[in-house]
Amino acid sequence: FPLRPRNWLESCNQWLVLTASSTFHSSLNVQDMVALDTLINEKGPCISIILPIAQSEEKKIHEALKRATQRARGILKDKSYPDDIKDLLNIKLDDSTRVLPHDLPDGLGIFVSTSQSAVIKFPFPVRQKIKVGNSFETRDLLYLRQYSDPYNVLTISNREVRLYSGVMDKLHEV
Q: How many CA atoms lie within 13 A of 26 on its CB side?
C-alpha cells in the first residue's frame, strides 16, 4: 500500500481484504470441495435444477420443486439421448427430489447425471435455472466454491486496528 499522511488514517475507517488464511477452517470440508469440483467438471447428460427458496413456506418449495422437475423432464424428453439414459436420469431425479434438507438455505440445487447426483444448499440468493445438457449449470457451484474460501479482514480506524477471519458470511475476531 502506498504511504498515506497521518490525517488520512484518522479521517476514515477502512476495510481491507487480505489473502486467504490456511489456519481458519471452512464450513465446507475437503470432501465437500472435492464433490463440488467433481460436479463442476462432470461431462455427459446432466440435469441441473436451481431454485431460490429463501423464506418460502415448505409447501411452496415442494410445489416449485415439482414444477421444476416436470420442466426438466420435458426438456430431457426432447433431447436425443438414448431411452435407457433418460430412464436412469429420471430415476435419479426422483431419488434426489424425494426429501428436502431440514434447514432450508437461500437456494437449493439438484444435480443429476448418469454417474452422480447431489443436492446442494446455497447460502446465498440464487435465480431459478433448469438445464439439461452435456454439463451441469456451474455458475452457482463456482460461486459457492469461491464463497467458501477463508479470508481475513483488517479494519483500521483512528482508534484501533482489528483483524477478523471469515468463511462465507461468518466473521470472528482473531
A: 18
The CB density around residue 134, as the number of other CB atoms within 10 Å, is: 12
For residue 118, list its beta bridge partners: 111
Residue 166, class by beta-carbon neighbours within 10 Å (0-12 exposed, 13-18 middle, 19+ buried)?
middle
Residue appearing with cell numbers 431425479: 93
Q: How far is CA 26 from the centre of its chain?
A: 14
- What pLDDT digit, counting tens, does each position of 110-136 carry? 999 999 989 888 888 999 999 999 999
**What pLDDT score was predicted for residue 27?**
54
* High-pLDDT (> 70) share of the chain, %: 82
User: 108 has which bridge partners?
Assistant: 51, 121
Cell 439439461, located at residue: 132
Q: What is the pTM of this model?
A: 0.74
Q: Where are the alpha helices (DSSP H) in the chain?
A: 6-10, 30-41, 58-78, 83-97, 139-147
**In the numeric block, which cell numbers belong to residue 40?**
463442476
Q: What are phi and psi of 24, to 5 degrees?
A: -100, 130
Q: How much is the average pLDDT of 156-165?
A: 92
